[in-house]
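Whether sequence alone determines local backbone shape is best considered at the level of individual chains. For completeness, the protein is quoted in full, as a sequence line and a line of structure tokens:
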Amino acid sequence: MQAITALEFKQISKLLNEQCGIHLQDDQDYLVQTRLGDFVESLGLNSFSQLVARLQVEPEKLLPAVINLMTTNETLWFRDQSCWNALEKAILPELFKKVECGEEVKVWIAGCSTGQEAYSLALLIDELCQAQKKTEWVRHFSIQAMDISETALQTARLASYNTFEINRGLSLTRRTHYFEQRANNHWVLRPNIRLRVHFDTINLTRDFSHLGQFDLILCRNVTIYFTPQVRSKILSTMVSMLTPEGSLLLGATESLWHQRNDFRAIEFEGCIYVKAVCI
């Protein structure tokens, strides 16, 4: 197949930016070549120009596959220990106080990929409830996890991971306690944890404020793929969706995009997260 041309790269970059907010740098034509090359050939096409033409005719059929291939979907269990330390010692204890008062807690994982982050949170909540001998508290946590890639979501819903995936950040103790090993060398999360997380598709470049208010939002290592303008709009909307004193966790490499008077930055043992100001 022919190598991607400058014009083809420009066309595909524009399409990705318009449809899902993915922003490619001018020197990232190799990403399109390597990630979409096999897909183009599988369609019986000879060039990326032909792919662009097909996308214009059959966007609903082909665009989801293109987006999935161009989305990194890089994830692992309990990624970035400082984040999980803050959740365990600072954020979740506050949410447990709400549960103790009879309130429900709503959590949103934005950009959940294949599910490891959402399930890591469900595991941690379960462990903390067991430690406090309040196992019934887990029923008061609602966890919604969303991603733009339907392929990634299919894996997340199955909660079945191979040996390589299961060993990336998951301790032997947790694997033994929460997973069942199947004959095909896959590890499947037990239903009591798997069914606590609900997965759905989302495009963060579209309006998502209708999802409502959340006590905790995790949007980690997601907005780094967007332009500064799109990133600012997404995070501003997320801040507006926090309940009073709700928390927003970003990735370790994501900085607070600008200063506002409706949130404050909290530093806890190396983890910085956003907390809504209670007015």
